[in-house]
Write a structure and sequence with these properties.
By secondary structure, this protein is mostly helical. The protein is about 75% helix and about 0% strand. It has a domain at about 10-70 and about 95-155 and about 160-210.
Length: about 250
């Protein structure tokens, strides 16, 4: 599709763009935000590493992809490693009597919603990428959902908090700009293109590395302690993901 014709969409394509926007712009980040109010960011990062399996399932159901059997073996192996890591970190850091069951269940519910939103949204985006460029998909999805964004910003804007106050809190303002420009826009564009070119199920495996990358960035930016167990699981998952990625060349 040429740039000059990129805005000429069919009705069903406009509908798909709107759905993608609702799932990726609101559904996924909104559910993650609600989850973070109930469970820790480290726990959230580990659970969200299940996204590759959700993407694989969505690819099979919606995009009719047929990854080889060994791909599924490595996917579940990586998921098992992440699960073991999660249990290990949790049992070492939290006593059972300190567990708030209600918050734990609610947090996991929102993480489940986030995984579904991301899996369906990215699968739809990758499928639509066959006719529309990834840049156009994300751009128009953001445009179609922008009225909702402006309305929610107006309704949820804190009382007695002016634009000048926001500018004075430069760190928070830069954080919002980063999320809007890089995470929500450029990152989504690149991810949509990658899923289309490499295959939704296979490229989605790379997200198994997400929690460990987040851990290392936390160490770099926040000087958080990295234990040897974290290094071990990060290396183990990386090896399994590499083995799984090799299966794309065996189709």
């Amino acid at each position: 599709m040429s740039l000059k014709n990129s805005a000429r969409f069919k009705v069903n394509e406009i509908y798909e763009l709107l759905v993608i926007g609702l799932l990726i712009v609101f559904g996924f980040p909104g559910a993650v935000a609600f989850a973070l109010a109930e469970v820790s960011s480290a726990y959230t990062a580990v659970i969200l590493s299940m996204l590759p399996l959700c993407l694989s399932a969505a690819a099979v159901i919606m995009a009719k992809e047929k990854p080889p059997l060994l791909f599924w073996f490595y996917s579940f192996a990586a998921a098992a490693l992440v699960g073991i890591f999660m249990v290990n970190e949790y049992t070492m850091g939290v006593s059972l009597h300190e567990l708030d069951i209600q918050r734990f269940v609610l947090g996991n519910f929102w993480l489940f919603v986030a995984c579904i939103c991301a899996a369906v949204g990215y699968t739809k985006s990758a499928s639509l990428n066959k006719k529309i460029s990834g840049f156009s998909i994300i751009s128009w999805s953001l445009c179609l959902t922008s009225p909702i964004s402006f309305l929610l910003s107006f309704l949820l804007w804190p009382k007695n908090f002016s634009i000048q106050n926001a500018i004075e809190h430069s760190g928070s303002l830069l954080g919002i700009m980063y999320l809007g420009l890089l995470s929500m826009f450029i990152g989504n564009c690149l991810w949509s293109i990658a899923l289309y070119r490499g295959g939704i199920a296979k490229v989605g495996q790379i997200q198994f590395l997400q929690p460990f990358i987040a851990i290392f960035i936390s160490y770099w930016l926040l000087s958080e302690l990295i234990k040897k167990e974290i290094i071990f699981f990060a290396c183990a998952v990386t090896v399994v993901v590499i083995l799984g990625q090799r299966q794309r060349f065996l189709d």
